[in-house]
Amino acid sequence: MLPCMDALRIAGLRKTFVRPAVDGLDLSIAPGEFFALLGPNGAGKTTTLRMVAGLLKPDAGSISIFGIDALNDKIAAKQLVAWLPEEPLLYELLTPLEYLEFVAGLWSVEPVLARARAEEILGRLGLWAHRNERCAGFSRGMRQKTVLAGALIHDPKLLILDEPLTGLDAAAARDVKDLLTGLVAGGASIILTTHILEVAERLADRIGIIAEGRLKALGSLADLRATGGVNRERDTLEDVFLRLVGRAAAEAA
Amino acid sequence: MLGLLLRHEARLIWRGSLFGGAHGWVLLLGFLVLLHGVGYGVAIGFTHVHLKGTDQVLAATLALLFVGGLMLTQAIQRASELLDDRTDLAWLLSTPVRPRNILAVRLLAVAGAVSLYWLLLLVPLANGMMFLGRPDLLGIYPMLLVLALLVTSCGFALTFALLRLSNVRRTRALANGFATLIGAAVFLGGQTRSLLPPSVSDRFWRSFAPESELAAHGVKWLPARALMGEVQPLLLLLALSVAAAVAASWGLQRWFAAGAQAVVAGATSTRAGARADRRAFRGGSLRVLVRKEVMLLHRYPGLAGLALYYTIYLVPAVVAIARGATMHGAGAAGARLLGAAPVLTAGELARLFISVTMMGDEAAELTRTAPVTPGAVRSAKLAAASLGVLSILGLPVLGLGLSLPEAVPAMLAGIFGNVGCNLLLGLWRPAPIKRTDLRRDRRGWGGLVNVVGFMFSGAWSIATWQMLQGRFMALVPAALAVGGLWLCRPRGQSEG
Question: B204-213, B227-236, B293-302, B371-380 — which is least confidently predicted?
């Protein structure tokens, strides 16, 4: 059992390409928390997640995952993490079973346990009937579910999801949402980005709104409604979002 | 509309090429000046060659068969690659543009691509000859166009006929198989002196020449006469090639649209079968990494055909051995081919396989976010590519080694050296395997990698040949290859 500490702690994170993409970001996520990171296009959400997942090296700052320094002890940190990018990472020439075997092996999951989990997860996601078909012929929803299965097979403690519901139909989106809430109920932590504000409104324990690489607001929906000193109880998340990031920035999205 | 599509295609090709950058025109100009310099030098040697009568027709016919055959190989491969292109093809077919116009533009693009290599090779030579007062080869310009249009039309017709008869996945494999056979026929045709008895070989070559100068005016020799600069045959063949291209665009449009729809619909899925259900998972991160790479290599469309293409180089050497050639006895030169040929083949296969593992890795980020070291990922790719080379060449090399044991040390040294160089080259600078890979080739070397890799293979083959003759000079080409590899290493750290 992991000692009680933040699932994710980011301090002073910076990353510059031509201009600052992430500019001094501070953030922490507790174990078992569902956290949504929102912002207009180009705000720095994906860059932040990619740094947490170990795909980009920050220019400055620190990232710790359950107390592990993710920048200096990458392997140990990655052991606890699952990353789902917006575009599903899938090998078209492999079947879902082969893909899950591969992912389980990468995370050193014991083979017998991995096989049992694969059967359970594929069944839950409605992919068992397609377990021996190559992924090349899969729809967007099936591909997303297959990579989600790959993310779950090694029982991650922190899931990093970039637009996980994009392109899914209502039924597939509901399956994924139920799965994610079940994971959080089981103790996993989730940080996700989404443009579907209703998803964040319904599922997230806390929401962070980022713009121009900086955190503009952080808290529960009630906390966000109260930003600016005026408590607007009837405001939706969309109202809060537009107020905080500015209509012009949102329309540029 | 056709003009718009052509401009669009030309712009994409130009920007995706080595010369598509900010100062690409300067680079292209410099490259052309260099090629013309070399061409002029080669042309000086050709000015002393004066072929007359039927010999001229023979030379022209053989040149056309050689170039046309290799162009046809490329045209078939590129036509089958159209079936891999799911990005802009699907989008174009959803627009009001007629499929025949899309097909016509793709056909012209492929024709341009297959003729480009020969243009770069032959046009400087032709220009050099003209400058030296020998405009014999000016027929090259229009004949390259004729050949390109004809072979591309044939390549498209073959590919879409195969698609009609089977499915997308099998079409790619079969088309590459045909391309391999044609390429092999061209190569082996050039090796008849090594493969056939002299009298049979002579008869074979003479069949490509007219019996007399009068007979050279027959229809059969129109292409040769067009290459030699005769206007009427040239115009006739130009008209024929254009007609073939138009006919292919019009005639194949329905099959093309149906095939593209099948690709977009992802109609490539196959089932692994009930056996996959019963098989237990296997663990170990390095083991699964290697296993994944081997599976992807095994399933990569067209890879078998490409690999077979490279192994054709071994055939003359095997025939020389079968004739009882020895290192120092009769046919020694042919026997020494056995050292060079497997070395050349091993390096080419190694580069092909490692490039497939690199460029074919659709989920590289998965391994980068997994708790495995980058070294383990690289090791798995190198291991899988090496296993691929071993699986193809292991037995033939063993057979050659048993036949000529004195050649084994040199052969193995050459194979290890060449495979090592080409594996590392492919790891650092993977060669694009298909058109869509050119878009992902962010390191910018593109097809130049294959040229560099082939130079390594050539150097190691020469080194092996020198070693088989017991010469210390073998160290020179080997050192050049290693030095060249050092220059190709990547500089700077990658992210993540």
Answer: B204-213
The answer to whether residue B87 neighbours chain A at the CB level (below 8 Å) is no
3-state SS assignment for residue A174: helix
Predicted ipTM > 0.85 = no
Contacts of residue A76 in chain B, CB cutoff 8 Å? 371
Contact A108 B285 (CB under 8 A): yes
Chain segment A111-125, per-residue pLDDT in tens: 999 999 999 999 988
d(CA B421, CA B485): 6
Check residue A31 and report its DSSP letter: T
Which is more confidently placed, B405 or A12?
A12
3-state secondary structure of A183: helix
Cβ of A111 and B366 within 8 Å? no
Burial class of residue B146, CB neighbours in 10 A (0-12, 13-18, 19+): buried
Q: Token pair for residue A104?
A: 């389980």
A103 contacts B287? CB cut-off 8 A: no
User: How confident is the model at residue A1, as a pLDDT?
Assistant: 45
Residue B283 region by backbone torsions, left for phi larger than 0, else alpha for psi between -120 and 50, else beta: beta
Under a CB-based contact definition with an 8 Å cutoff, are residues A88 and A141 in contact? no
- Tokens 């693009």 -> residue: B109
Span B64-68, average pLDDT: 87
Helices (H), A39-194: 45-53, 74-78, 96-106, 111-124, 140-152, 170-185
User: What is the value of pTM for the model shown?
Assistant: 0.72
For residue B496, the model assigns a pLDDT of 39
A106: CB partners within 8 A, 6+ apart: A154, B285, B288, B289, B366, B367, B370, B371, B372
For residue A50, give how far its alpha carbon lies from the nearest alpha carbon of chain B (Å). 9
Q: Is A97 helix (H, G, I), strand (E, B) or coil?
A: helix
Q: B residues 233-292 near A, CB within 8 Å? A: 265-274, 276-277, 280-285, 287-289, 291-292
User: What would the pLDDT profile of B317-368 be if each residue is shown by its tens digit?
Assistant: 666 655 655 555 545 666 666 667 788 889 989 998 998 898 878 888 899 9
CATH number of the A1-80+157-253 domain: 3.40.50.300
Per the CB < 8 A criterion, the answer to whether B127 and B36 are in contact is yes
- Asked if A78 and B296 come within 8 Å (Cβ–Cβ), the reply is no
Mean pLDDT of chain B: 80
CB of A33 closer than 8 Å to CB of A41? no
SS3 A125: coil
Q: Where in chain A is the domain with CATH 3.40.50.300?
A: 1-80+157-253
Residue entry with tokens 């029982």: A155
Residues of chain B with Cβ-Cβ distance to A137 below 8 Å are 265-269
Nearest-5° angle of CA B314, CA B351, CA B485? 110
Residues of A in contact with B284 (CB under 8 A): 105, 108
